[in-house]
Write the structure tokens for this entry.
Amino acid sequence: MDARPQDDFDAVVLAHSGRLRRLGRLLLGDPHEADEVLQDVFVKALESERRQGPPRDWGPWLTRLTVNACRDRRRAGWWRRFRRWSEQVETAPLVDAAPSPEDLVMGSEARGRIWRAFRSLPDRQREVFVLRHLEGWSGPEIATALGVSPGSVKRHLFRAVHRLRDAAREVA
Amino acid sequence: MTHLSERALVHAQAGLAEADERRHLESCLACTRRLHALGRDLSLITRTLTDTLEPRPSPAPAFRRWMPATTVATGMALAALLWVEVAVWRAVTYVPPSMQPEEARAMLTQVSASLFSLGGDPPAAEAAPPEPIEALVTGDEPEGECVGTEWLVRSGCGVGGAS
């Protein structure tokens, strides 16, 4: 018996939701916003699949959709993040209650330095770094997805790595 | 031999190096070591970003972050209030014209003379030579018209006085 289209799409959601949620959190810095973006992305993906059929490769297509949705969210939703800022502060002790093994090895101060350096990157540099070193995309793929030249990708990547490495060297 | 720059190493680590840079890496031990060091740093960074939770700002630093903005906003509000008080409020509020010292002195003298006069007339009026009644009647003023308390001294004023 053939699988129904809904089952196929559920499988796509299962296969990519964890990775896309992490990508959204890295780009936005807000778990709630990342979850909302993820929902929007899958709704758009479902609509697009019904209209035009499934894409050739779900992974890059969903990643591109997520990156663009995060960028739109950053542009439009500054007030929403401002509103949520107080909620994040209140939940801070609960989120950090159970340190992972990496936390124990590295220490919260060192971890904080790397995270702060990552958050201080310009949006474009952060996108290029995440797509290259966390998503494993190639330079031309990143250039196509972000609509920039390959030279621009290399420039953004170098600046991002340089700043993050400075923070990591302080750790080491 | 010229070693690769940090920029070239970053590009090589990301698989974006040019052909001559790749050739150099194959033959240069120092640059290969630097590339491995870069790889270790990047591994530490990516592990931090993927395996650890992002620390949230604590309330105290956040309070300090908003402190300058709050101070500036308060200062601007005070400046606006001051401006309203000085420029706007005073412009719309009626302030009586101030008296010259001579005028004030004359007015006060007149008031005190009126208050302490036994006859009810101010001393200034007594000091001035009384005008003859005829002069009052045939003065420049139109006959029969009296102003204020002139009916007391003018024969043409008052009930039946005009006839």
About this structure: Chain B is about 60% helix and 0% strand. The radius of gyration of chain B is 50 Å. The helical segments of chain B are 6-13, 19-27, 29-51, 59-92, 101-116, 123-127, 133-137.
